[in-house]
Amino acid sequence: MERVFAKYQKIKTILENLLEQEDDRVRKLMADGILHVFDAENPLEEDSSPGHRLNVGIYDKPNLILDTNSLNTIFLDHRLPIEVLKQQITFFVGKSGVLLDVAFSLNQEKYDELKNNLKELRGIEQVLEKVHYDHVPLRKYQFNNMKFYSKYLVGESIGGDYFDIEEVNKKVYFFLASFNSYVSSVNFIKNISVIKNSGGDIFSKVEKYIKEIKDEVKGLFLFEIDQKKSSMRFLKRGTMYLHSMRSDIYEDSGEIELKASDYIFIGSSGFQELMSDYNGKPMTGVSDEKELAGLYNDFFSFLNNKKTGRFLPCDATFISLVVNEKLIKEVNQNE
Fold first, then answer.
1. CA distance 122 to 91
2. Across residues 165-179, what is the average pLDDT?
């Protein structure tokens, strides 16, 4: 730390000021080894970025930064005015700052240590209790000519999976994505919300956005379903689980006509990984909701046996799209 202070005087002044304040958050963070400030132009081995620490790299010359692409490392420009730097650091260590994102990615042992040491983070425990209940019930989403069913089990880190289904301008949009971090998941949610509210060709806009963030996404499915035409545009990226009698859905992108009694089973990257050694009931289709519920119970009973403590090693989401034969026929007859 002295090496950093000797080179970056503004940072020394800011941290000394923060350490003298009655709010001793920064002092606790640094004492517990959770907040680490380093020279981003000349990092040492000790400046590596373990998942339980928030790393702050300081620099004067952007071209000299050695970025390790760590999701829990931020970089501050020492050339900025001191008040701006102070605001940035205060935000990063504050209650609503990046530290919360880091806390979500901790392993259970480190999380417990941080929770006990920092009063400001005790509220996270209540959030986790709501999110991390052991078995989310099977959820159903009904539309004119189809149903979606979903089930989710949480992993040790929040934010790995994102699932959303919404009707916009008489089209149904379905998203299932797996991310490398909670931060990436939050950014995706914010940007997708903006895109959906922007109108126009939402599918193409999302497709363009996915290309921009491809390194942050483990896997993704996007469906745009035109209920009137019974057609579906789709986009698939990365490693995800997919099973269907429709061979044309296995391409990376395309458009298909939905048919009576079609079904598509989709799983997140975590589901794909955790189910790799499953040898139970095969998926040959679904005749009714009871059979589908039984399939879900088999899968998630198998997954529950893979928990390490209360949680799975990673998030696992499984979604079913089932086309209703009667409603599809009614739509086609009206055209």
1. 18
2. 89
